[in-house]
Specification:
The protein is α+β, with helices and mostly antiparallel strands. Helix content is about 55%, strand content about 20%. The longest helix is centred in the N-terminal third of the chain and has 38 residues, at about 1-40.
């Protein structure tokens, strides 16, 4: 019986790994290149610019179905900025197009919105039992990353 349970857990983990790999490849395409370009030679000016942009973008984040909850800055070399967004609601494909178009005024905000919308679109594909996506954290730096948080 224990072997049977272990086998099922291995199968589930393998399926989840494949889905996460597909998600990672799809979500970071061109965005990863843009993040690396933005943060390659970044310093305090880039951080200040980022904070000004993100601070004035609450309305567009809400339109995208997310609310900015937390921003943390690692002042290492290079700096890393992590923004955490609470998932509020799904939005229609038409609303997504509108938000993406509006966000083009700021390349950095457009990048964040794009990542958030991709996370929303994949959230149904990554099922983790009875857990639901509650937030998305986006790390911007030379090694960009995205964390999707699930809660029961």
């Amino acid at each position: 019986m224990a072997d049977n349970i272990f086998s099922k857990v291995k199968e589930s983990a393998s399926a989840l790994k494949d889905k996460v790999s597909d998600f990672k490849d799809d979500i970071w395409g061109d965005e990863q290149k843009q993040i690396i370009k933005e943060f390659r030679d970044s310093g305090t000016d880039k951080i200040k610019e980022f904070l000004e942009n993100i601070g004035g973008s609450s309305a567009i984040f809400l339109q995208s179905g997310y609310e900015l909850k937390d921003v943390s800055i690692n002042l290492g070399i290079p700096p890393v900025i992590v923004s955490t967004f609470e998932f509020i609601k799904d939005i229609s494909e038409e609303e997504q197009k509108k938000v993406l178009e509006e966000s083009k005024k700021s390349p950095l905000i457009h990048l964040i919105i794009s990542c958030l919308l991709k996370a929303s679109n994949y959230f149904d594909k990554i099922k983790v039992g009875s857990y639901k996506m509650t937030s998305v954290s986006i790390s911007l730096g030379l090694t960009p990353g995205i964390n999707i948080n699930f809660t029961k």
